[in-house]
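User: Could you go from structure to sequence for me? I need the amino acid at each position, not a summary. Structure tokens:
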């Protein structure tokens, strides 16, 4: 609970600054880039999350690694996070910021899982249908999940639409078992 409160507080501060400067989209993309860089580089992740390393050393490294890749706003925000020793909250801060930015921009995040990478045309058709249904812009997060066999699983907030072959086969199996048990009972 404390983690969420801290993350929301920092995200709210960054959100207000970014909105005031008209940089919501840019800051959102830059925060995502920073987190991707930290996740992809085990050394950088360990360095950032190491409590023994001083904030000054972390600032220096962040400055070298991120200079020219992110705006001064994001860089200085990260300096504050490091100075206050809140580095471990960065993933939560990012998620909370994304929620605030998406709401302000009228965007809904949609998680799409498919057995194979989505074809461009399929993605466009799905996006058009979701925009018409939700009345908001759609931002996809795609994931390839071969265990689905085929079809799609789409999650919009708490709503799950499962059109995967795996689920269809499971349901068919359940109906067959159910009908067999009725025959045996009867």
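Assistant: Here is the amino acid at each position, in order:
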């Amino acid at each position: 609970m404390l983690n969420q409160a801290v993350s929301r507080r920092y995200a709210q501060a960054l959100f207000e600054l970014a909105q005031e400067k008209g940089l919501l989209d840019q800051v959102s993309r830059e925060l995502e880039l920073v987190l991707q860089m930290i996740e992809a580089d085990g050394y950088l992740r360990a360095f950032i999350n190491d409590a023994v390393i001083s904030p000054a050393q972390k600032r220096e490294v962040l400055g070298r690694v991120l200079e020219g890749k992110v705006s001064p706003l994001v860089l200085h925000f990260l300096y504050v996070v490091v100075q206050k020793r809140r580095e471990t909250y960065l993933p939560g801060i990012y998620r909370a910021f994304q929620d605030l930015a998406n709401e302000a921009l009228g965007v809904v995040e949609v998680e799409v899982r498919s057995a194979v990478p989505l074809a461009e045309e399929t993605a466009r058709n799905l996006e058009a249908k979701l925009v018409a249904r939700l009345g908001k812009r759609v931002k996809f997060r795609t994931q390839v999940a071969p265990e689905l066999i085929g079809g799609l699983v789409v999650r919009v907030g708490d709503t799950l639409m499962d059109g995967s072959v795996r689920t269809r086969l499971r349901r068919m199996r359940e109906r067959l078992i159910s009908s067999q048990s009725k025959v045996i009972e009867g």
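One structural detail worth keeping in mind: The helical segments are 2-20, 24-40, 42-49, 55-66, 72-83, 90-105, 120-134, 165-185.
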